[in-house]
Specification:
The chain is α/β, with parallel strands linked by helices. The protein is 49% helix and 13% strand. The protein has 12 helices and 9 strands. Strand 8, helix 6 (162-174) and strand 9 form a beta-alpha-beta unit. The longest helix is centred in the middle third of the chain and has 27 residues, at 184-210. The radius of gyration is 21 Å and the shape is globular. The structure holds NADP nicotinamide-adenine-dinucleotide phosphate. NADP nicotinamide-adenine-dinucleotide phosphate binds at residues 17-18, 20-23, 42-45, 48, 78-81, 83, 87, 104-106, 129-130, 133, 137-138, 141, 238, 241, 245, 307-308.
Length: 308
Amino acid sequence: MTDATTGGPLFDTVVIIGVGLIGSSLALNIRENGLARRVVGVSRSAENRAKILELGLADSVTDDAAEAVVGADCVLLCTAVGAYASLAEQIGPHLSAGCIVSDVGSTKSSVIADIQPHMPEGVHFVPAHPIAGTEQSGPAAGFASLYKDRWVILTPLPGGAREPVERIAALWRACGAMIDKMDALHHDRVLAMTSHLPHLIAYTIVDTATQLEDDLKSEVIKFSASGFRDFTRIAGSDPTMWRDVFLNNREVVLDLLQRFQEDLVNMQRAIRRGDGDFLFDRFTETRDIRSSIVEARQAGQFIPTEGE
Ligand code: NAP
């Protein structure tokens, strides 16, 4: 896809800072679809930089984010969200007027607070979050179809220019994604429920299993297909990314966790009292939610890997 107004690529130079699962999947789309004339990758590790070039994810790579953004018209921050404030501070003075900075972070209020203060006059920041992913990480984990038919949520800054938001929306649409827009706090509340809390529960269940006595633990692994295996997929996600998510959506997650604990106690009480009707009604409601998600083409046969 090209820029409808000019017939050319959407951007001249796109810099991807953090070429992991999300960044490399974007890079593959940008290069395969000619969405930019040039892609520059930023990675701290020499091994990853070699991998990025070997996989053809970028035209050039560097470990210097400030140097990379000079003259770029689009910069995409794709590291774990805990690195955003420091990266924004490093690149801020080197960004050209008119440049669009965007991100892919799983939290949005914290990301705006971390990045926006470092954006100079004339640079447009468009916060974004693709609701797509897997438990894999690193530059070799990416694949071009990751964003196909998945949502990307944009949380534009109040009073910001419209055109940069539309350009970032066009970039994601060219990757096969669908766009929705909302304010940052609303995003953080929705994602706390759909993603952050489920990950916390999965991490906790798998952690409970790791504390079991050795003979029981080996049976848990052997017979893991009965539910536990699905939790281990989620709990196999990148520890840095998820540490940063919980530290950066703290209040919203704690509030939701309180409600979850109350609901769990209700389930516990029903089991103790032998209240089968209560359990049956709750499990019927949850089954309906699963059917709605499959109907919305966000699970089931449409999604080979369900990510964050
Ligand atoms: P990832 O595979 O671990 O990739 C992140 C990359 O960032 C790493 O390969 C790392 O490479 C690089 N990096 C880390 N710190 C850096 C720094 N200070 N400077 C430059 N590069 C740095 O992670 P991911 O899954 O792509 O997630 C990236 C972002 O996407 C996160 O903010 C996450 O919240 C968001 N997200 C993730 C998912 C998902 O399911 N995974 C879904 C939606 C959104 P080097 O070590 O080589 O620098």
